């Protein structure tokens, strides 16, 4: 038994590969403690604390408190997916962290990261502001072809809003669009094995954050605007977020429908197409994309689009938001309405990140008298977070260096790294899914230099340049992506009917 234990030492003098961060083999201790995982504690102890292969089990007893012991959830995901999606507000799943939940949060975080990795934000490119890849090859180009999802449609928004630093524009006179930016995508799980593993067909909506990370935060006017998705004027959201979601530009083919109209029409279409199946709607995003994810979830639920008739399964499609480093979106009434509608939100934050603390610095959900301020005093700058918070701390990871760079604390890949090592409050940081630590430096300089991973290393080969038939290096032309499906107006008309029927039922 003891011969199966590897050295727990993480030190340059040891023989372990310094980039090793996987799990140790499973060890059966006795009938009551089967299927536990012993895993190393990624710290830097003295050489005398190394546990050698020849060490007996009895000699490990003094060190057991220093070793993280994890119990694998033996239930298949397909049996507990509703719990993992938050039907019970993740009660009992976060501390200690349920292994299924950890994997699912990371998986959806990678869907959000795909928005950054595929977005063309090079001002020297005439395609700046668009997606680099066609939908049919999107996941393949990003090394995610094995996820079992296919792009259903791309989402666009107009730059004619109050958040100028969010948009990327080309320096060239000939551009793909002067008004639009690619904002994200809708994807559907189509692989039968993955559907079986998940226990349902999953629809994913992923919204892009800003590639300049924090500049957009200075554009927030901290003005609450009536949501206008309901007759209740007391439900409000931040003006910049509202504009980004609802504005359109008739002169631009990509923005002739607002981001809101695009995503709602697509959800309506997909729910009709997969009528009778068990379905989930999962929405994800990082930073400003997290704000859009929450607004989308609220909008779908407020309109009642997730209420489907007939079929073998429940007639309410669950809506879950996995939010990463997201700001506050709306007032306390907005939060309360999201709760009433059953929108489930898990907010993953880094305690050192400033973005989740705004807007609403002075009046927020932590204030005891917030409800009084909103209802009696009508305080105009009152905001509240929605959902359950999962707070991470980047100082707990021995892989990350100490830095005052606020962009590092906000970085999405860093959040995913922290998730891989998080097991609960006060528990040792220990990576379990063998997620490559080099990904942290994909678009940051956050890893310790000991690991030899260059900062900001991800880019297209030759920065996208290819050699043509004449031997010249050029940027290749990209096939033009269809702006909107031909039936978008048809599905929007159905949404208006749904909203009208829902309104009549409320009035009755």
TrEMBL record:
Primary localization class, coarse: plastid
SUPFAM superfamilies: alpha/beta-Hydrolases (SSF53474)
Superkingdom, taxonomy of origin: Eukaryota
A GO term from the CC aspect: chloroplast
Key words of the record: Chloroplast, Hydrolase, Lipid degradation, Lipid metabolism, Plastid, Transit peptide
Pfam family name, one: Lipase_3
Gene3D superfamilies: alpha/beta hydrolase
Listed GO biological process terms: lipid catabolic process
Signal peptide: none
Subcellular location: Plastid, Chloroplast
An MF annotation (GO) of this entry: phospholipase A1 activity
Family stated for the protein in its record: Belongs to the AB hydrolase superfamily. Lipase family.
Name listed for the protein in its UniProt record: Phospholipase A1-Igamma3, chloroplastic
Species of origin: Herrania umbratica
Gene: LOC110412264
């Amino acid at each position: 038994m003891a011969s199966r234990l590897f050295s727990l030492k993480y030190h340059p003098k040891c023989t372990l590969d310094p980039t090793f961060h996987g799990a140790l083999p499973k060890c059966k201790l006795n009938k009551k403690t089967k299927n536990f995982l012993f895993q190393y504690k990624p710290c830097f102890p003295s050489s005398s604390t190394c546990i050698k292969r020849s060490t007996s089990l009895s000699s490990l007893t003094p060190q057991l408190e220093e070793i993280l012991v994890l119990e694998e959830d033996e239930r298949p995901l397909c049996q507990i997916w509703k719990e993992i999606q938050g039907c019970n507000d993740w009660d009992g799943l976060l501390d200690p962290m349920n292994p299924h939940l950890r994997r699912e949060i990371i998986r959806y975080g990678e869907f959000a990261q795909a928005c950054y990795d595929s977005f063309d934000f090079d001002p020297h490119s005439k395609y700046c502001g668009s997606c680099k890849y066609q939908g049919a090859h999107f996941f393949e180009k990003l090394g995610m072809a094995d996820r079992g999802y296919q792009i259903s449609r791309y989402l666009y928004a107009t730059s004619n809003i109050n958040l100028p630093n969010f948009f990327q524009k080309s320096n060239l006179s000939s551009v793909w669009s002067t008004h639009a930016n690619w904002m994200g995508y809708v994807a559907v799980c189509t692989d039968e094995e993955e559907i079986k593993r998940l226990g349902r067909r999953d629809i994913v909506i992923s919204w892009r954050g800003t590639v300049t990370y924090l500049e957009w935060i200075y554009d927030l006017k901290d003005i609450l605007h009536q949501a206008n998705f309901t007759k209740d004027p007391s439900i409000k959201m931040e003006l910049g977020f509202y504009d980004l979601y609802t504005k359109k530009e008739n002169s631009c083919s990509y923005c002739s429908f607002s981001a809101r109209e695009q995503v709602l029409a697509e959800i309506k279409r997909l729910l009709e197409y997969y009528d009778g199946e068990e379905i989930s709607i999962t929405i994800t995003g990082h930073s400003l994309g997290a704000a859009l994810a929450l607004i989308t979830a609220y909008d779908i639920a407020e309109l009642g689009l997730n209420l489907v008739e007939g079929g073998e399964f429940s007639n309410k499609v669950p809506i879950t938001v996995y939010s990463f480093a997201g700001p506050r979106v709306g007032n306390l009434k907005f939060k309360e309405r999201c709760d009433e509608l059953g929108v489930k939100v898990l907010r993953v934050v880094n305690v050192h990140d400033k973005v989740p603390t705004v807007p609403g610095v002075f009046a927020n959900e932590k204030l005891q008298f917030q409800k009084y301020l909103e209802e009696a005093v009508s305080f105009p700058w009152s905001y509240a977070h929605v959902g359950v918070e999962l707070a991470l701390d980047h100082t707990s990871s021995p892989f990350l260096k100490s830095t005052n760079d606020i962009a590092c604390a906000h970085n999405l890949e860093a959040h995913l790294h922290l998730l891989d090592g998080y097991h609960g409050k006060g528990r040792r940081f220990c990576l379990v899914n063998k997620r490559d630590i080099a990904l942290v430096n994909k678009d940051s300089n956050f890893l310790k230099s000991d690991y030899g991973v260059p900062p900001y290393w991800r880019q297209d080969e030759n920065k996208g340049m290819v050699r043509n038939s004449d031997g010249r290096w050029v940027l290749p032309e990209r096939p033009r992506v269809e702006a909107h499906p031909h039936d978008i107006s048809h599905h929007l008309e159905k949404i208006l009917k749904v909203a009208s029927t829902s309104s009549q039922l409320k009035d009755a």
